[in-house]
Amino acid sequence: MTKSEFPQNLLPNNISALAAYSSAKSQKLTGTTWLNANESPYTKTFELSLSDLNRYPDPQPNNVINAYAKYAGLNTEQVLMTRGADEGIELLVRTYCENSKDSIALFLPTYGMYKVTADTHNIAINALTQKLLLEGTAEQITSAIGDSKLVFICNPNNPTGSLTELDKISAIAIALADKTIVVVDEAYIEFCPEKSAASLLQDFNNIVVLRTLSKAFALAGLRTGFMLANTKLLKPVRKVIAPYPVSRVVAQIAEQALQSDAITQMRRQVTILNRAKATLVQWLNACSAVNTVLNGEGNFVTVQFKQKEDIDNAMQTGLIMRPFTLYEQNNWLRISIGNEQELEQVKLWLENLGTEQ
């Protein structure tokens, strides 16, 4: 008896046609300097107790929820812990969007998981532009959003680093009240904390803020995020989330990472990374091989080179960064802010390309 072919008819059409999100680590690259995933260069140590792994964990560990609520300046009822911000995206689509009927709006170029999640659940995409978001009026933006159930604003935006001002987010939320949920993805907000939309939750019931410990908190390997919103908005999401989404080990580490001294250390590291980023921007602006450097926030710089071959050559030498096709051009590169030694490798590469005197 021979093994038959897998019956493709078992797959729904939307999954058959789905293009999976290509993460930085899924590309199986080899190199010596890794600046492609917007990870922190800092490592952490934690104390763990493994004596109670025979028991199921708390679905929402109180100590972690309390600590993050204090950090975010919110009530504990406004905080939901998730497996990274990606689970927050998926939960919102599953909870609030009806299969084959609803749509989500997003502003391209932006984080790719919004589209992948919508495609997975057979939710239509209302593809708008970052130019509209940044330069359009709130009336123009909300008109373009139309009947979309969710609108995702990555702020700061990945991969461009651009920021949408809180006044504009407020105006959009007001215009879409009782119609659309405004989802503000703040994965990189620790690099510009004064721009957080968390302060808007006291006045809006249709704003959700997504957070993560993967970037400034240097815990990308922990896969821990938070959904911040008012109680009524979170109530149906709590029905949909898995019964035990947070392991005991994850909860222990997250609790320690949110202690006051650890937060102080994180903020000190953010200051160092922001300073290193400013230096990298200077190097890029001085390099004759560079065409455009995007100004923005976050622990990365996105830059356009005159020749795509320069990017390819860097990757082949073990300097691993994140190539992008932006604005229909394939010569863009996102460079994560690493430590001093890692960025020195970038400097040497740029000098070899040719630096203006």
UniProtKB/TrEMBL annotation:
The keyword Nucleotidyltransferase does not apply. Residues 34-345 form the Aminotransferase class I/classII large domain. Its EC number is 2.6.1.9. GO terms for molecular function: histidinol-phosphate transaminase activity. Keywords: Amino-acid biosynthesis, Aminotransferase, Histidine biosynthesis, Pyridoxal phosphate, Transferase. Pfam families: Aminotran_1_2. It is an enzyme of class 2 (transferase). Pathway: Amino-acid biosynthesis; L-histidine biosynthesis; L-histidine from 5-phospho-alpha-D-ribose 1-diphosphate: step 7/9. Its cofactor is pyridoxal 5'-phosphate. InterPro entries: Aminotrans_II_pyridoxalP_BS, Aminotransferase_I/II_large, HisP_aminotrans, PyrdxlP-dep_Trfase, PyrdxlP-dep_Trfase_major, PyrdxlP-dep_Trfase_small. It catalyses: L-histidinol phosphate + 2-oxoglutarate = 3-(imidazol-4-yl)-2-oxopropyl phosphate + L-glutamate. NCBIfam families: hisC. Belongs to the class-II pyridoxal-phosphate-dependent aminotransferase family. Histidinol-phosphate aminotransferase subfamily. Homodimer. This is histidinol-phosphate transaminase. The gene is hisC_2.
